[in-house]
């Protein structure tokens, strides 16, 4: 089977991102150069620039990939069946768990996320909007079945995201880890109580 040029390019871009992510984790985003990535791939830096026009665009690609994995896991939960209350609980807990596992306790990856938020805000913003949309989808399903009281679903989704920010945002997860406050389960209980049917 012969690969078409678009497939070859997509494959090469994916390989570059895999190596870049590994180097970002090992030596840090700031210290990693395009030449370092090229060396691992046994190609010239100029060849890397055929696929990404800057280190910043490589960084955005790595960030998008990491966030995409969270979105994929969340999407499986959203697309599931059964009562919405346990699914929303699982969705909120999964986003927190995946962000915690990836970014907390890993100083180099944490640095990458901090810079991503400064340099590639549109990538982070799109991710947050996607997560909010998925949360809204579950809330809408619950409102339709009578499990939730949510006359304004988009507002309810934004409120849930705001309430969960301490548990979703990588920097806040790290900064709040040792500070007093509700546990993840306590916050999710609070969110679900706010969505419970009235009366």
Throw out a few tags for this protein.
199 residues; 0% strand; Tetracycline Repressor, domain 2; mainly alpha; single chain; 76% helix; elongated
Verbal overview:
- This protein has helices spanning 5-27, 34-41, 45-48, 55-78, 84-103, 107-119, 121-145, 153-163, 165-168, 170-176, 184-195.
- With 199 residues, the protein is mainly alpha-helical.
- It folds into 2 domains: 1-53, Arc Repressor Mutant, subunit A, CATH 1.10.10.60; 63-195, Orthogonal Bundle (Tetracycline Repressor, domain 2).
- Helix 1 (5-27) packs across helix 2 and helix 1 (5-27) packs across helix 4 (55-78).
- The termini are far apart.
- The mean pLDDT is 88.
CATH topology of the largest domain: Tetracycline Repressor, domain 2
State the share of residues found in helices, binned by percent.
over 70%
The general outline is: elongated
Radius of gyration (CA) equals 20 Å
N-C termini distance: 63 Å
Q: Mind telling me which CATH architecture of the largest domain this is? A: Orthogonal Bundle
- Summed up, the domain count is 2
Number of strands: 0
- The count of helical stretches stands at 11
């Amino acid at each position: 089977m012969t690969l078409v040029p678009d497939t070859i390019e997509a494959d090469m871009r994916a390989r570059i991102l895999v190596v870049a992510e590994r180097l970002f984790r090992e030596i840090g985003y700031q210290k990693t150069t395009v030449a370092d990535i090229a060396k691992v791939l046994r190609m010239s830096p100029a060849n890397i620039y055929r696929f990404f026009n800057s280190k910043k665009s490589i960084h955005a690609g790595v960030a998008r990939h990491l966030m995409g994995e969270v979105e994929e896991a969340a999407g499986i939960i959203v697309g599931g069946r059964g009562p919405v209350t346990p699914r929303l609980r699982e969705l909120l807990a999964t986003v927190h768990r995946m962000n915690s596992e990836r970014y907390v306790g890993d100083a180099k990856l944490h640095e990458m996320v901090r810079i991503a938020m400064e340099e590639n805000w549109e990538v982070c913003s799109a991710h947050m909007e996607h997560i909010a949309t998925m949360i809204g989808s579950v809330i809408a399903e619950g409102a339709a079945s009578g499990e939730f009281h949510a006359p304004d679903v988009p507002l309810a989704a934004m409120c849930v995201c705001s309430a969960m920010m301490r548990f979703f945002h990588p920097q806040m997860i790290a900064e709040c880890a040792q500070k007093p406050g509700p546990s993840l389960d306590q916050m999710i209980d609070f969110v679900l109580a706010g969505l419970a049917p009235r009366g």
